Structure formats: structure tokens, C-alpha cells
Amino acid sequence: MIPIAKPFLDKAEADAAHETVLSGWLSQGPQVVAFEREFAALVGAPHACAVSNCTTALHLALLTLGIGAGDEVITASHSFIASANSIRYCGATPVFVDIDPATYNLDPACVADAITERTRAILVVHQMGMPCELVSLTALAERHGIAVIEDAACAIGSQIKIGDKWDLIGKPHGTMACFSFHPRKVITTGEGGMLTTSDSDHNRKLRLWRQHAMDVPDTVRHGSPEVIFEKYLFVGFNYRMTDMQAAIGRKQLERLPNLIARRRTVAARYSELLGSFDGLILPHEPEWARSNWQSYCVRLPDGIDQRTVMQNLLDKGIATRRGIMCAHREAPYAGGEQRHDLHQSELAQDRSILLPIYAQMVEEEQVRVANALQSELERVRV
Ligand SMILES: *Cc1c(COP(=O)(O)O)cnc(C)c1O
């Protein structure tokens, strides 16, 4: 069986978790502090704040900006439902706009058209690890005095060219960036999330929100020679990361450059193998973007049924997924949500499939996937 994805962990991660279990400090302690420091240094952000997952990271990013009832946040419907849900958690309204079919990311012209006097932020998504058009989107946001929150759940290690130099996603370009360490992403801690920002006030607030707005962190209280009484400043949440997760994450960070290099090789090989397939549209990497290839998405030619292709591949032991979901087609958003034309988003969901991709993927597996896909395309043609 060729799975859709496979996390890459070994004894190093197992040992790190083991040692942490025996250390006596299991949650939001020294491992979390070290993981935050190393993550911030890696992406080039002044601050990184660890949380329980990327959904909670998105929630806190919006709360920290004071977004709530009556506010509009522009985002993609064509995303995992967490993007839209995080806006709803705050009582704000997600305003869905369409994507550019070439990159599966927000179309800046559609975003510009959707801005109203109630728009407080653009929640941009680096879908499947491909950087979105951050330069024009941040410029647009700046002109309107609104924030940019990056849903970088899939985009750890992806790069974007700003001027003539390459930055990692997470270096503050927007207001805050949110990452996921779910096993479907490029590195994993089981569950886990991280926020980066250059704003020390945002960083301070994020740390309050994630721990019931307790004004003294445990790490400070624990090391203090004097008795400290803490205060709870407002109604916050428990969105803490555990130290076992952070210890695993630190090992995963060390692997990141190799994992990305491998994934880029696998993606390039797919493009060679599939490049000559009539009517199949391969993913497009703009010259200013370097994807981490969290997913490899191909668009099927017209006249070929998505579900049939996926079933036939599955029968041959090859797992695939359909194109990224559209939130506006799901029950919570099927009613009177504000939405603009979402034709490209729907087409992307209905006409694309994600192929298996992981760092350990070998040539023989890729050839099997390519051959199976080719016979599907040929079968339809006759
Ligand atoms: C995975 C994902 C999320 C949610 O991440 P969790 O860590 O599972 O909460 C949010 N947005 C996008 C685009 C994702 O792919």
C-alpha cells in the first residue's frame, strides 16, 4: 500500500519524548521554551509562541487582534475547515473569496473586491505548502489598514522571494503566522501549533490567551526564590503544548532541511513522470516561491471522473485524496455566509486529486503511481 502521507520519525524523537517523560516537567516547560526559541531562529522571527494545534493558533491570532462580532475576515473557502472555523469562534464573519486556479491560493484581485468598511483582516492560506501572493496581499492590507494572518499550517520550510532574497514562511511578513505539527504536515509533534510575530505586544497577549490569561508563566514562578501570587486578567483558554510534543518537535526541526530537500526531489520526479500526460495539469510553482511540497496536487483532464480514478488507484494499493475541500459547501457555512464567486474553488475541489508524497518515497513507488494514473487517463480516452 502506498499511503497518501507518512511522517518521518525515528528513535531520536522516541528518545526525546522518553527523556522528557522522565524529566518531571511535562507541559509548557523548558522543552517548549527551547522549541519556541529554535523555531523562531529557524524562520527568522523575533517571537514564536507554541500552542496545542494550528486551529487554536488561528483562533488566538484573531483574538489578539481584537476581532469579534460584526467584523469581517476575508479568507479562502478552498481550505481545511479550520481556517473558516477560527473566524467563527470569534463571532466574526468569514468572507469567502476565490482562488487562482494555477496556485490554489487566494486571488489578490478577488480579495481587493471583497474589502468593506467592516473588514478587519485577511486570513491568507499557503495552501498545500505553496506560498500565496504575500507581497501583493500585505501591500493591499496595508493600504486598507487591516491585518494579515497567515495560515501557514502546511508551509513550514516553504520559501518566498521578497525583493531579491529568499525568506522562510513565518518570518514576519504579515501580522502573525500560524503553523501546524499535525502528522499530515511536513514535520509533526502528533498535535501541535506555533505562532510567529515581530510584535512583542502580540507575543505577550498570545502567551496570556493560551493559558487562561495567567499573568505569571509557570517557568517564571518555578524558578523564583520568592513566593509569587498570579492573577487571571481575562477569560483565556488552555491551548498549551506539552513538553513531550516540544521535545519531538525539536528533533523534527533538525530534520527539516533534509525532509524538504527530499520532498522537492520527489515533486520534481513526479513532474518528469507525469509531464507528458495529455490534459493532466501539474502544480505550478511561481518563480518567487519554493514549496515544501506538503501535498502534490494534479488536476484531471475534462471527462474523467474523480471518484472513479481515486477508487481504481485505491484498488491498486495507492491512496489519494480529492482536491482541498471548500468550506462553503459544508453544513456550517452552507447558509447565509458572505461569499463571492467561488467557481475556481469548486472546480479545484472537484477536478483535482492529491497524490502520495512523503520524504521516504522511493522511485519505484512513484513509477507505480504514475503508471496507475496513466492507465486511468488512457482508459477514459478510448
Ligand atoms: C491542517 C490545517 C489546519 C489545522 O491544523 P491543526 O494543527 O490540525 O489544527 C489549518 N489550516 C490548514 C490550511 C491546514 O491544512
Automatic annotation (TrEMBL):
The active site is at K185. The modification N6-(pyridoxal phosphate)lysine is found at K185. Pfam families: DegT_DnrJ_EryC1. The keyword Transferase applies. Signal peptide: none annotated. Keywords: Aminotransferase, Pyridoxal phosphate, Transferase. InterPro entries: DegT/StrS_aminotransferase, PyrdxlP-dep_Trfase, PyrdxlP-dep_Trfase_major, PyrdxlP-dep_Trfase_small. Gene3D superfamilies: Aspartate Aminotransferase, domain 1, Type I PLP-dependent aspartate aminotransferase-like (Major domain). GO terms for molecular function: pyridoxal phosphate binding; transaminase activity. One of its GO terms (biological process) is polysaccharide biosynthetic process. Belongs to the DegT/DnrJ/EryC1 family. This is Aminotransferase DegT. It comes from Nitrobacter winogradskyi (Nitrobacter agilis).
